[in-house]
């Protein structure tokens, strides 16, 4: 199945491509980070992120559809609140200073959108479910994961896999944003990849089985064959999710077919030392930082005690995606400015 290419490979640099580790950074031009160009690409993926395939394969759409996508995000409280911080107050959320009751604000910082873009452009996935679409339409979060996609099984690309992803977007005054992001991803693994939580999530997702256009109602004759292929894959996974929730499909077999992308987008001290990736020491320092964070994740996962009847967290099919950025404040501020402008276009 073909998928929508948003062209992020023109802006993002993918230096590390391993089975269980991918690392990216925003490229530089004339000594400046291509932040504006990257946020433009994120905005290009907004409709796809907000609506998924619940309205059909969106190869092209009217300007009004983009306005509706932006509005859907701002109908969610977290996005409206975070816009006040970054745009109206010209401030930044320090993850260390957030109170427990304010942690929900992290949902308005676009970490899920960045994960969506990278999965679509670099892992050849398609969205099975759009949390934004359903949260905006029925006011309820339909799943606890930051992405639910269908894509190739990384160990056997002839097979498909369900991608259940988690995302973090971090800034810390201490300069240890990457390490703290890893800490919180491990917390998500502990809470989301346990038997009871997964069964409940499988049930919630499978209940949305009729939320897609039928083949008969699908309007674009040029992509009808592609949409047929998508519906077949969707039906296959929805059926498995339903069986998992009912206990008629083994959890072990299910989790073996699941890919777990964990993305940590974080403000890195690296960009205080280097203002251009052409510096002779940049690449070695970058790779050193990435490998240290990978070791941190592995050590934390391996230290989680095994429990009989529960998933072994260190044996999940995890792909760690690391995305250091020069400034979280500037990235989120520009994104909210563009999103707000789209909503009011």
Q: Give start-end ranges of low-pLDDT stretches.
A: 100-105, 136-140
- Topology, number of strands: 9
Dominant shape? globular
Helix coverage percent: 40-55%
Instruction: Please tell me how large the radius of gyration is.
Output: 20 Å
H/E order of the elements?
EEEEHHHHHEHEEHHHHEHHEH
* Tally of separate helices: 13
Question: What strand order characterises the main sheet?
Answer: 1-2-9-8-7-6-5
Give the overall average pLDDT.
88
Overview of this protein structure:
The chain has one domain. It contains 13 helices and nine strands. The strands form two sheets. It has a seven-stranded mixed beta sheet with strand order 1-2-9-8-7-6-5, sandwiched between helices. Helix 7 runs parallel beside helix 12 and helix 8 crosses helix 9.
Explain briefly what this protein structure is:
Helix content is about 45%, strand content about 20%.
What distinguishing features does this structure have?
alpha/beta; 18% strand; single chain; two-stranded antiparallel ribbon; 7-stranded mixed beta sheet; 345 residues
Write the layout of secondary structure elements.
Layout: E1 12-18, E2 21-26, E3 28-29, E4 32-33, H1 35-44, H2 46-51, H3 63-74, H4 77-88, H5 111-122, E5 126-129, H6 131-138, E6 147-153, E7 156-170, H7 177-192, H8 195-206, H9 224-246, H10 251-256, E8 258-267, H11 270-273, H12 282-302, E9 318-325, H13 328-343
Parallel strand pairs: 2-9, 7-8, 8-9
Antiparallel strand pairs: 1-2, 3-4, 5-6, 6-7
């Amino acid at each position: 199945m073909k998928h929508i290419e948003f062209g992020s490979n023109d802006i993002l640099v993918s230096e590390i491509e391993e089975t269980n580790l991918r690392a990216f950074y925003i490229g530089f031009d004339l000594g400046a980070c291509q932040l504006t160009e990257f946020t433009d690409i994120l905005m290009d993926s907004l409709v796809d992120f907000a609506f998924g395939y619940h309205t059909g394969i969106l190869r092209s759409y009217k300007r009004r559809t983009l306005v509706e996508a932006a509005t859907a995000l701002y109908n969610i409280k977290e996005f409206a609140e975070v816009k006040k911080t970054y745009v109206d107050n010209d401030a930044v959320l320090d993850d260390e200073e957030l109170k427990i009751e304010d942690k929900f604000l992290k949902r308005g910082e676009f970490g899920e959108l960045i994960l969506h873009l990278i999965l679509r452009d670099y892992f050849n996935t398609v969205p099975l479910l759009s949390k934004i679409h359903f949260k905006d339409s029925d006011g309820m979060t339909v799943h606890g994961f930051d992405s639910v996609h269908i894509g190739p099984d990384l160990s056997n690309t002839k097979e498909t896999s369900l991608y259940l992803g988690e995302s973090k977007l971090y800034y810390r005054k201490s300069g240890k944003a990457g390490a703290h992001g890893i800490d919180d991803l491990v917390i998500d693994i502990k809470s989301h990849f346990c038997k009871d939580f997964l069964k409940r999530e499988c049930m919630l997702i499978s209940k949305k089985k009729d939320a897609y256009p039928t083949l008969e109602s699908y309007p674009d004759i040029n992509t009808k064959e592609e949409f047929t292929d998508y519906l077949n894959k969707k039906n296959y996974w929805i059926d498995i999710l339903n069986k998992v929730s009912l206990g008629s499909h083994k959890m072990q077999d299910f989790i073996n077919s699941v890919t777990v992308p964990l993305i940590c987008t974080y403000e890195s001290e690296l960009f205080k030392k280097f203002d251009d990736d052409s510096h002779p020491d940049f690449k070695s320092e970058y790779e050193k930082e990435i490998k240290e964070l990978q070791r941190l994740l592995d050590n934390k996962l391996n230290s989680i005690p095994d429990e009989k009847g529960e998933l072994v967290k260190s044996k999940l099919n995890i792909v760690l995606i690391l995305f250091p950025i020069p400034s979280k404040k500037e990235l989120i501020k520009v994104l909210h400015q563009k999103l707000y402008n789209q909503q009011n276009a």
